[in-house]
Amino acid sequence: MEHKVKLKMQTTPTPQREVVNTLLSSYESLSKNGQLDRMNKTDILLLISHFREEDDWSEALRLSEEALAIHRMDRELLIHQIEILLEYKRPGEAMEQLAVLEQSGGDEITCTCLRIKAMTQMEEVEMARVLLTELKYRAPQSRMAEIHLLEAQVHARSGDQGAAYHSYKEVLKIEPRNRTALERIWLASESSRNQKDSLQFHLELIDQDPYNGMAWFNAGQAHYYLLRYEEAMEAFEYAGLLEPHFKLTFCYASEVALAIGDPKRALKNLYDIQQRIEPDAEILKQIGQSYQALENPGKARQYFLLARNLNPLDDEIYYALGKIYMLEKKPGVAARYFERAVNLDDRNEDYITGLAEAWLADGKPAEAEACFVRATELAPELPESWVRYAEFRFQQGAYPAVITLIEEAAEYTWGAGLYFIQAAAEFKMKKRKQALRSLEEALSEGIEEHEVLFTYIPELRENKDVKAILRYFTLEHEEA
User: Is it the case that residue 33 has pLDDT exceeding 50?
Assistant: First the structure.
């Protein structure tokens, strides 16, 4: 990336916030005393916009209704109310108010756009498309970005994410800083597998305007998908400089840093955003994951517990806490956390296996076995689940059961680990020929995993047949 911009960190603008706070106080007082007619329309529109930005749709709708009772047939207020009703997914009521707007002499392009939005919500997508096609022919160039954005939303609603992606591109060709298009195009590119094209497109936007923070963020997303981690980190960090209050860019920068094994860099990004916004459960959880990667379980637990307090329904937090307590040799406590994770997501084989390990360490083999069985049922295509169950049976001395398990696993999956434990079980059963054949199969699948055999039966390290086979496969591997 060529654009090495240096920026001072931005701070939250306060004058506008102070104006809004003053208006809110005035609104509460006037509304309480039935004197809202004393507030001018400009201030009312500003407050409605504020409520919408804060996603307080019920308050925005209430204020628009009160204002329309005073300023009847006002076009700006009607447009706001129709848009709020559409946000509320109440297209029928929106259409009723649209008729009022048209009677009041509302702008034809605006009315058609609102009609298309309502019809799309009412699942009349084909008619909405017809209206869109007509609109694109007669609308002035100054409205085309708005119309392409609407077109993208219609495509997305009908499930055509590829078409939505290309419509968002058209918006950004006209308005490279259109916030809505910039925020939605990366999800559309992901859904339609257009990340390579998205990367090229956003790099072109950056060439035109190196200070377009959301373009940097979207380029980072594309780099991340294409496994270009360093480029993704750089893009996310530039986005963080340009969009210092956009939480996602710091969270993704942290995620990439953890993926490349740099938890200190992850922490730096998380602390940067923590200083600007109220920390939420996701940020606290990622801080916990960073400390976990730094092998600081005490600090990790502290942040995971804080995250749990804010979001008690996040299964990943309970699983992480369970792993920490397992490291601290507290399997009983770990089991309780793993159980909570399983209760929240009983389809995750990692949670089930974690619970099995905790119960096994806590002296509850029957409960552990039930979990090992469940893990193989949930993900029969994963050899790791079968291997861990087989290891459990091996440790119990149930060698024939190990062979039966591996035969069952072979119907769904394969892997060196399966053959290594099969060979170990056959050695224990004095089935030398079968064991050596299984060992050859294991080494051909994954010679780099051969040390696992000696964790099952350490004395095999000195077995002359095993040494000979291992030497042969090692030489063959080196020559390959």
Answer: yes
Q: In angstroms, how far is the first alpha carbon of the chain from the final one?
A: 38
110 three-class SS: helix
Give the gyration radius of the chain's Cα atoms. Answer: 30
Per-residue buried b or exposed e for 146-185, using 16+ beta carbons within 10 Å of the residue's own CB: bbbbbbbbbbbebebbebbbbbbbbbbbbbbebeebbebb
Least confident of 17-21, 38-42, 333-337, 365-369: 17-21
Q: How far apart are CA 337 and CA 319, in angstroms?
A: 6
Cα–Cα distances in angstroms (integers) from residue 181 to residues 138, 246, 281, in the given order? 23, 16, 27
Angle, helices 57-70 vs 41-53, to 10°: value is: 160
pLDDT score at 11:
35
Contact (Cβ atoms closer than 8 angstroms) between residue 445 and residue 437: no
pTM listed for this prediction: 0.75
DSSP string across 273-333: HHTTS---HHHHHHHHHHHHHTT-HHHHHHHHHHHHHH-TT-HHHHHHHHHHHHHTT-HHH
**For residues 409 and 417, what is the distance between their CA atoms, to the nearest angstrom?**
11
Cα–Cα distance measured from residue 316 to residue 210, given in angstroms and rounded to the nearest whole number: 37
Encoded amino acid at 110, one letter? T
148 and 167 Cβ atoms separated by less than 8 Å: yes
